[in-house]
Amino acid sequence: MNILLTGANGYIGQRLLPLLVAAGHHVVCLVRDPRRFELSDSLRASVTVAEGDLLKPETLAALPLEIDAAYYLVHSMSGHDKDFFRLEQQSALNFRAYLDRTSARQVVYLSGIANDRALSVHLRSRKGVEKILGKGRVPLTVLRASIIIGSGSASFEIIRDLVEKLPVMITPRWLNSRCQPIGIRDVMHYLMAVLDNDACRGRSFDIGGPDVLTYRQMLLELAAARGYRRYIVTVPVLTPRLSSWWLFLVTRTTFSLAQSLVESLRNDTVANPKRSIAAVVPHTCMSYRQAVDLAFQRIEQNEVVSSWSDALSSGVMPRNYMDHIRIPQYGLLQDRQTLRFTRDPQQVLQNVWSIGGERGWYKVDWLWRIRGLMDKMVGGVGLRRGRRSPTDLRAGDPLDFWRVLVADRAQGRLLLYAEMKLPGEAWLQFRVLPNDDGSHTLEQLAAFRPRGLAGRLYWYSLVPFHFIIFKGMIENIVHYGDSVPLPAVAAKQPA
Q1: How far apart, in whole angstroms, are the C-alpha atoms of residue 227 and residue 167?
Q2: Residues ≥6 apart with Cβ < 8 Å to 115
Q3: 42 burial class (0-12, 13-18, 19+ CB within 10 angstroms)?
Q4: Angle at 386 between CA 382 and CA 387, to 5 degrees
């Protein structure tokens, strides 16, 4: 089949794409910026990348009309402003208008279980999208899921953060709400099984695992799986805003995502037996404990396929980050360090490619953590977002409070763009350059384009820390893993 896949670079889309290709389908991936959508060699022959923005219907005019089916995997958990609901509905309207012109026989939408009466704005938004898509010419299949458990999923990572960091938790009463968690592997099974399935066209199904648990039970079950003893005290006095701040400061989530989750967690998300998919797609789902164990197995084996933080941090309408694929030449304040070395350049590149996350930033990590905490306090992403893989980077990856713009191992270049809250824009670039005598030089460039006086004051106030951090950082990157430091020459060029 010829299939259109929206949300192809999201948490679900990245996992679904290789399954569709393995099943023999040709997939058209709709993305806002093809430059940050990187395909593996095994997928290229069966994938076409199409550029378009669902909020700009004119950009959809060139999309192919000869398609057999489409997946609508577009939904932002980061939006929390007054326009969020309207933008979500507009995206669905624009997509429906496009679908009505195509030859598609089915559209599949992954939604959320919404069986309560007083729904959160996100669950109301998802139901609204269902209604919009359902009024189109193309038959709609809706899969409604509760919390999805898998390596890299937002829900799993937040539960993991809480359990691993807090021996005693003072929690709001929403921890007593009930849900029906489902493993990511089972979600993938259903997404594939309903495709081109006549019995699923024009129908909505609730999907969930075999366990109905409170969030409190989920925390304690994960703690037991990790061998921890945890104590939870539930209090009625934490308002939604205080709960959001509590979740935001303790876990690696963004504040807007924390707000959305707290608001949604007041609803029970338990599957309605009348909308069960079992009669149409018989399948035995993993238990919550099995899904947790599998997630940790993937993490330990460095096989995390996708992460919730792969989406850009700015919500429904992200900036075109790839416009910054080259650092601007003018109007910048810079700190440039170079260090010549004679060891294997591939080892130095591997050290560069392993920066951040658990490895840290090679120099005074406590200062980086303070900077991350400051960013969290003003609503930024913070340092604890981590990285997808401890040893591999690709364009578009999150890396603590940076975003990877370029990860060109062959050319020895890594370029990061700051997603932290700043009075300006910041880049951090590493390049390994060959020398005529057979040695190599590591170039490390921190560049900042200030916005007004506040930006300049910010940069110059950090100059003393830059001297400590950046000089030590480049030296440690070059010599990390080298028991006998090699002679090298360091040089600093002023901005």
Answers
A1: 12
A2: 206, 268, 269, 270, 272
A3: exposed
A4: 135
- Identify the H or E element spanning 319: none
Cα gap 489→273, rounded to integer Å? 70
Computed on alpha carbons and rounded to an integer, the radius of gyration of the chain in Å comes to 24
Tracing tokens 């729904």 back to the chain, one arrives at 119
Angle at 256 between CA 252 and CA 260, to 5 degrees: 100
Amino acid at the residue 298: R
Q: Provide CB contacts within 8 A for 198, sequence distance 6+.
A: none
Q: Kindly state the tokens that stand for 105.
A: 């026989």
Looking from the CA of 88 toward its CB, the CA atoms found within 13 Å total: 26
pLDDT for residue 349 is more than 80: yes
In this predicted structure, the answer to whether residue 196 has a pLDDT above a threshold of 60 is yes
Q: Is the pLDDT of residue 5 over 90?
A: yes
Q: Which residues contact 271 (CB under 8 A, 6 or more apart)?
A: 113, 144, 146, 180, 206, 207, 208
Asked if 175 contacts 86 with a C-beta cutoff of 8 angstroms, the reply is no
Residue in 495, 493, 458 with CA at minimum distance from that of residue 474: 493
pLDDT tens digits, one per residue of 129-166? 999 999 999 999 999 998 899 887 777 877 887 888 78
Q: Measuring CA to CA, which residue among 438, 429, 436, 417 is closest to residue 477?
A: 429
Is residue 190 within 8 A of residue 277, CB to CB? The reply is yes
Q: With 80 as the cut, is the pLDDT of residue 275 above it?
A: yes
CB 398 within 8 A of CB 307: yes
392 or 107, which is more confident = 107
Q: What is the pLDDT of residues 201-254, one digit of tens each?
A: 999 999 999 999 998 898 899 999 888 888 888 877 666 566 666 666 666 666
Range list of H helices, 23-60: 41-44
pTM exceeds 0.85, yes or no? no
Tell me the C-alpha distance between 467 and 323, whole Å.
Answer: 29
10 Å Cβ neighbour count for 77? Answer: 22
